Fold these 2 entries.
Entry 1:
Amino acid sequence: EAGVAQSPRYKIIEKRQSVAFWCNPISGHATLYWYQQILGQGPKLLIQFQNNGVVDDSQLPKDRFSAERLKGVDSTLKIQPAKLEDSAVYLCASSLLRYVGGTEQFFGPGTRLTVL
Amino acid sequence: AQSVTQLDSQVPVFEEAPVELRCNYSSSVSVYLFWYVQYPNQGLQLLLKYLSGSTLVKGINGFEAEFNKSQTSFHLRKPSVHISDTAEYFCAVSPSIQGAQKLVFGQGTRLTINP
């Protein structure tokens, strides 16, 4: 089966500019996650969707980050305006079910963002 | 809340030698435990997971891990490593509560295999 797709793979912007990342999960996966992975750290969950509804966005900096998952399939994560500390890899993951504990999350290759 | 500590940021080993990557966690509730591997410029891939039952869990690529509840540890082992095992390894936990799938990751251990 096809994996989680993300684009672009790399993006370089200047601070205060806007940027958007796109994710297409594995077909049939109801749950979608966006993670931020800063260099030298483990991934940190930004937001979790169940179908097209938000389940957890407690760690999303809502003053500058936004995300949507229209029609419960693909998703877009936006940063507006970007700051230097937003430089990171943004990972998208999906899983089949939310309510079954231990369900495997499948990760995309990530988008590496550099803010200058 | 949960937290994960990976005790070594880098582990260099020679090819065909055994390796152990250490992971300790903290949680006020029961947890599920995971090890993920990240190859350069790729996303994370699940190596193995502990949900319940036998505390020794076997995963892909010859890796295994042992859950130790009293020591709150979940160390990853491989008896003989290969050059292709060079990657970043992440330990993660999630609460074993219905509906809670939030993964909390450790900071990662970079495994370097030398010929």
Note: Chain B has a mean pLDDT of 92.
Entry 2:
Amino acid sequence: GENVEQHPSTLSVQEGDSAVIKCTYSDSASNYFPWYKQELGKRPQLIIDIRSNVGEKKDQRIAVTLNKTAKHFSLHITETQPEDSAVYFCAAIAGGSNYKLTFGKGTLLTVNP
Amino acid sequence: DGGITQSPKYLFRKEGQNVTLSCEQNLNHDAMYWYRQDPGQGLRLIYYSQIVNDFQKGDIAEGYSVSREKKESFPLTVTSAQKNPTAFYLCASGTLINEQFFGPGTRLTVL
């Protein structure tokens, strides 16, 4: 089955700096890669996603890049703010198993004022 | 997200008890999912259902059961066979293009 590795497990940045979280996946047939943000005690919220037919997608301060050859994808947050502090999860849907997401173990991002 | 509800928010279980967690959605999504989240862990899939009256085991189905009698509802039963059920349980529903949206979660504690 699909295996998703996420790094780093914790990340601390100063307000205004950029943050990058990286994930690798094992199934070359995977075709959908969402990112979720989870604040303490709350539900995960879908913040951005990318499909295998594009290499990059942006939404204001957030961007995701995908390298299908290397089987990795990354979340980029620019001009970080304290409210960006949360746990971020990457995920992938393996080819041939529509609907079934495999999640990374999460990155705790702390943005220091 | 507002279209997915879970109840109760907190649940306490005694040893040997079965408990049922409710999940309802009004988003008209065909697919629904149950995940378990433990501290420092990602989300692990318990069961999922792509259509009414059909469901499949996820990665950690032992000790759990589900039903899908209505499109809107996907209840999860944590049976006494689940030896370590204390966790945060998240229900999600999904679109035909694979986007998944989560409910607010149920925090289950074994007494």
Note: The two ends of chain A are 41 Å apart (CA to CA).
